[in-house]
Amino acid sequence: MPAKALTGASAQTIVLSILSHGENYGYEIVKRVYRLSGGDVEWSAGSLYTLMHRMKASGLVESYWVEKEGERRRRYYRITAKGAASLEREKQEWLSVHGIFVQLWGLQPSLT
Amino acid sequence: MSHFDLDTAIATWRRFVQSARVLEPDDIDELEAHIRDLVEERMATGHTAEAAFHEAVQQVGSYHRLEQDFNAVRWQKLWSEHRITDELRGYGAMLGNYLKVALRSMRKQKLYTAINGFGLAVGIAVCLLLLLFVRHEWSYDQFHTHKDRLHRLTVTYKGAEQTYASKSAFAAPVGPALAAEYPEVEQVVRIGYTNGSIVRRNERLLAQASAAVDPAFLSVFSFELLQGDASTALQDPSSVVLTASTAERFFGEADPMGQDLLIQVGHAFEAFTVTGVLADVPETSSIQFSLLLPFSRMSDLKGEPVLDNWDDSFASTFVLVRPDAQSAAIDAKLPGFVTKYYGHWFEGFRNRGIDGADGDLIRYSLQPLSEIRHDESVEANEPVRSPLFTYLLMGIAIFILFIACINFVNLAIARTAARTKEIGVRKAMGAVRQQVMLQFWGEAFLMSIGAAIVGVGLALLSLPVFNELAEKNLGADLLLSGTTLWMVVGLVLGVGLLAGSYPALVLSGFRPVEVLRGRLRPKRRAYLGQGLMVFQFALSAVLIIVATIVYQQVEYLRGQDVGFDTEQMVVVPTFSANTDTPYLRYRDALADESSIIAVTGSSLPLSFFRSRQSTVIGDQRFQSAVARVDYTFIDVMDIGLVAGRNVSVEFATDAESAVLVNERFVRHVGWTPEEAIGQSFPFYDNVPVTIVGVIEDFHITSLHTPIEPTILHVNPTRSIGFVLAKIAPTGIPATIDLLEQQWRTLYPDLPFSYSFMDQRVEQQYAFEARVSAIMGYAMFLATLVACLGLFGMAALSVARRTKEIGIRKVLGASAVGVTQMLSRQFVVLVVAANVIAWPLAYWSAQQMMQAHAYRVAIDWTPFALTIAVSVVLACVAVAYQAIRAAVQNPVDALRYE
């Protein structure tokens, strides 16, 4: 598990990134993160929904209820234009941090 | 275990979450969907539904950790969607539930509620009365607009052996000289109190408390002038200003302004014109009077020229400091003032063997107006009240309030066992600590609000008793005023916060799992409860011990022989300190009456005032009390002669040169009584007098001060201010009538009044008697409240041990044995409390007795008495519960549960 501070800092960007690939609901978002991290990162529902609340309040995402055939009623989240702009900005920030580490640790990506 | 139903479990979970009112229904739906997804996933991997559900709920997390985030978002939303009132209604419902639970718990525990409520009510009532008293006491002289700039001039004279005496009496020219010399002084007002002016209008003849004051008095002080002009009212030497009730006394409904009033000046009545009417002087004023005369008439009023006399100190001198100046600036210049006007006195001091720097011999200072009420160090014209009394009352109120609060805490602790389950359930259901705290504090506040209402009622009921005890005249309106309301609110908040803090802070911290599993066996709790109980009983033991000692002291003082006859002795003031006293004619007129056994006279009324004189014998200098008496004084007063003879008319020189001295005087000089006879020493105006007799010691003033060397000299023609008449024990009212008739016949111009000597003597101990009575009440209330608490504790302790008692009895314990077992613990605590109380009680009692020259010896009796009383009371409080438990059929106890 990454440090709590890192989880906190990265969570919003991760959620926005997932939602930028398409609308999704809470349970699935947690699962996606779990799978993407290879089982290292498992968010608790509590912290996820808190985050979703905050993002909704600041207008980065919007939610709506969907009832599909044969499935239970779920609340889906969708990224807003404001959320997309925020994601773009956050992406740049993370990439520059990433760039620093790559250079520092000599991890030049090789195409071979 | 086997009947787990997921839907039921989820429904239950939803109710918990809803009850917290943090999440919106939508949010809960979302969480539920999440849980269901998780459960399905876990069950797919082979977990049971129950295990999967618990893990899922765990995963969702304790929702209250989200509370803050959710709350911030939610309140915003509520506001924007105009649903705020719904929300508040929800909170109202929650508080309503708390209230319901609180009331239910109170009703279920009637005894507990009654004890707590009553104890707190008593505590609040006592505190309330006391706060009123303190407020009144501290409001003295605060009504003057210029109070911050007003000061009273005081002077401290150095005496023999590093002693100092402070006074606030000054010669008439001092004030004007100060005003003229220092620009920082805006105004100086002199007040010369007279011993009561005799005022007459038509048939009405009364002695009135009067004060001769400078014209600026009316503008410098803020006595409310109802009629007249403050700047001119006292300018004219024949003007008089009356208070409203004095005006009514002489003029009734008629307008007194411009009317004449006859006032005795010297030996004749003189007409004064009423130039102003003041509202009655507030009770909270140190300066008291019924009428004001111009200070310019002071010489006439005193019968000697004092206005230009720098050596006759009598006037209170008040200084109004300019707004832009500091009183310290004037203080710094006062030594220069003393040297300039009284420098020639320094020599006299040194001649009398008193050494020191000039500034140390005579020191002037300015005393802020706010201090004059409580500063006992200054011998002043204005009355002083010991602040000790105020502190004593404050201490008592705090003691009682403390004891009541401890009851609350203790009973709450004792009931912890019963309530831990409730707390456990509440917390398991999702209540956060803050909510539990809110609930407990809420209950404490509810209780203290109820207690405050009862307390105000009790205070109202006991106001008359309290007024009498405290010598105040506090009205019920004061108790129901706005300020008092705030005091009550303050007390409710204070008591609620204090009394509720233990349950709120400690009980709320329990971990629900431990509580419900019954793993909670906090040993610490018992110690705290017992510690508080010991503290409580120690406080009440201190009160009982001190009250007993104070009572013993009062009885001791009353039992002391004052040294002269006080029975059937009537004191009649002659209202004359001058020559040509009315005494002689009155004495002779009474001589033939059979109901009057004997009449004598004295310049002092005994029992109150004294006048002192410096006495020089050989190289010894000391102060003696001096009284001028009639020849028959020691015979009538039944004061024994130790050596020599009494003064007598048969010796022509006695009136000029004979004195009687007391044994203390003789001992002070180092003579035997026989040696003293025939000795001479310089007396008034250095005229030598001879000791013709030595008399037994008697108390010329109260027992608060030791008997001083005393000189009696005889001169019935001068300054006999008091007639002392020994009357027959039967037909006293008729004799008093006779005394009055004779007086009226002889002196129709002088008012008649009288008092009984034994009552006057008793009066000297009025303060101690009052303190004793107050301590008695305090002792009673404190012990009552503490015993109530003990009673409650015992009840709960017995309830907790019902099964134990049952088993003991089944195994053969006797009822007596069980009672003993239950009582022993409390008795041990009470005894421990007493032992702890001893040093504090001893110290307090000593402090209180310090003011007395004659003290009862503090022995072991009050301490033994107190321990006996507390143990008996504790046994009574516990025994009722213990016996009830002990005689119970053990089957009932064991079948229970």
Largest sheet of chain A: 3 strands, antiparallel
Mean pLDDT score of chain A: 85
Question: How much β-strand is present in the residues of chain A?
Answer: 5-15%
Proportion in helices of chain A: 55-70%
Estimate percent helicity of chain B. Answer: 40-55%
* Strand element count of chain A: 3
List the secondary-structure elements of chain A in sequence, H or E: HEHHEEH
Strand percentage of chain B lies at 15-25%
Quantity of strands of chain B, as a count: 26
Order of strands across the widest beta sheet of chain A?
1-3-2
Distance between the termini of chain B: 25 Å
Given as residue ranges, the uncertain stretches of chain A (5+ residues, pLDDT < 50) are: none
Query: Quick one: overall form of chain B?
Result: elongated
Number of helices of chain B: 31
Write a structural description.
The complex is a heterodimer of chains A (about 110) and B (about 900). Chain A has about 110 residues and is α+β, with helices and mostly antiparallel strands. Chain A has helices at about 5-20, 25-35, 45-55, 80-105, and strands at about 25, 60-65, 75-80. Chain A has a 3-stranded antiparallel β-sheet with strand order 1-3-2. In chain A, a hairpin with a 7-residue loop joins strand 2 and strand 3 (about 75-80). The radius of gyration of chain A is 16 Å and the shape is globular. Chain A starts with a helix and ends in a 7-residue tail after the last helix. Chain B is about 55% helix and about 15% strand. Chain B is α+β, with helices and mostly antiparallel strands and about 900 residues long. The relative contact order of chain B is 0.09. The longest helix of chain B has about 40 residues, at about 435-470. In chain B, the strands form 3 sheets. Chain B has a 15-stranded mixed β-sheet that branches. In chain B, strands 18, 19, 20, 21, 22, 23 and 24 form a 7-stranded mixed β-sheet that branches. Chain B has a 4-stranded antiparallel β-sheet with strand order 17-25-16-26.
